[in-house]
């Protein structure tokens, strides 16, 4: 194992590990861990007692001491009951600690992911973080459970090693080997034998098994990619059905599944060899102490009780020293989980650090000064936009598809960081941005209408009235129904539902990004008229392709494909009835 690898892995582990143990929950966490450690300590002491009991018991059997037999059985019963009790509570408290730690870590990752639109920046930045959902849901759980099980397992095995090594040293006596015309006496021979045997076993296991770390890392990625494709298929089932897209979907799913299987085959191949080694290792460990102890036993100097206790002690020391061998698959999985969570955390941090060079200020006006917007790789799509729009003067943004209209709105909304210049806008609470496809979360219709605010329960009359105004009367009696509304409602209905949201929130500045694209011209005109009537002091900034939209706006900003633009009052444009794109 290279020193560099160990150093890097330890650093990565520490970065993930320390948070919880230094958090506000630290005393609860440390208390629970101390209790688990204490219970394990007692368990090891009981195991020692149990091993001595074996010596006692077999000696009683060998001596036909029936009068001591029941006494010994009673001792066993007490020891066994205590062992059961401590094992159950050590496990139980470890699980409680696991839940608490996972809850804390999941919250941290969710906060970081959702903070400052990092989830969105990760996407726009084309970061190669795959499947953040899997990292938050599965990897954190694995990290916590494996850290606890491996850590506490290691601690317990260390205790076993220290306690039983002393016992084994005493029991094994010294071993004489003829050497250089004399004899070489090796004290605690069985301890040395198990030590050498374990070192050889660990070395071979690592040589064969270390590739499992990378393979496990990839396996989790391929599994998540496969699952993600299945989810996408389910979410886009209607479009795929219209396209009759089953064949390419099946091909795509097959390709992703093949990656899962091919990688898994490599894991199986490695694990087959590893299993062969660990099972052989365990089998040899049974016979090895018998072979070593046999000469002394057959010399008839020691009892069968001694033999049994020696073999048990050898087994315990052997188990403890072989911890890495027997846990290798878990260690490999644990290492890959650490790698995945760390890269995710680093990418989130990098995404969070992306700051636009825009200077923003607040005022009841939309004003841009030398606003330049680029793509993530730096190619500008809008150069030096200087525009001054007073409150109450509606603006329409037009231009060919792909020229950057939505990206301009994203920049004004503060979620597109690849921009520079100055922007003056009203305060966030007075603004509402509506995208082309409204987001309708899972939940009741009432919750959907109020999203992202919590829905009050006493507002039914108002909601029914607003649904009526937006021509959605048929939904008035479904306010408490829970549904996947984005699947049930037509796109036009969803867009009108978004207008209900506007009327509920009553913003003074409304940004509509093709928010009426699915409506017929009459309904679109009706919705704009409704907005102006219900919110007469609001300023509307629309992005749209429909030429009928022009009449609802006073100014037009026309974006060109080369990054230039034209900002002018609409009545100054000679051909009012031409398409907004022209
Ligand atoms: N995350 C991204 N990474 C790279 N390019 C992007 C990203 N998001 C948008 N773009 C590109 O930026 C350009 C402008 O996109 P935008 O969505 O603003 O266009 P638009 O004018 O609103 O188009 P449409 O009228 O078709 O909706 C497009 O060429 C698009 O491919």
From TrEMBL:
Primary subcellular site in the record, as a coarse category: membrane
Q: Keyword Iron-sulfur: yes or no?
A: no
Q: What is this protein called?
A: Putative ATP-binding cassette transporter
Tell where it localizes: Cell membrane
Keyword tags:
ATP-binding, Membrane, Nucleotide-binding, Transmembrane, Transmembrane helix, Transport
Q: Where is the ABC transporter domain?
A: 366-579
Q: Which GO terms describe its molecular function?
A: ABC-type transporter activity; ATP binding; ATP hydrolysis activity
Kindly list the residue ranges recorded as spanning the membrane. 31-48, 68-92, 142-169, 184-204, 273-294
Q: How does it sit in the membrane?
A: Multi-pass membrane protein
Task: Name one matching Pfam family.
Answer: ABC_membrane_2
Gene Ontology CC: one annotated term = plasma membrane
List, for all copies, the residue spans of the domain called ABC transmembrane type-1. Answer: 35-333
Top-level taxon of origin: Bacteria
Which species is this UniProt entry from? Pectinatus cerevisiiphilus
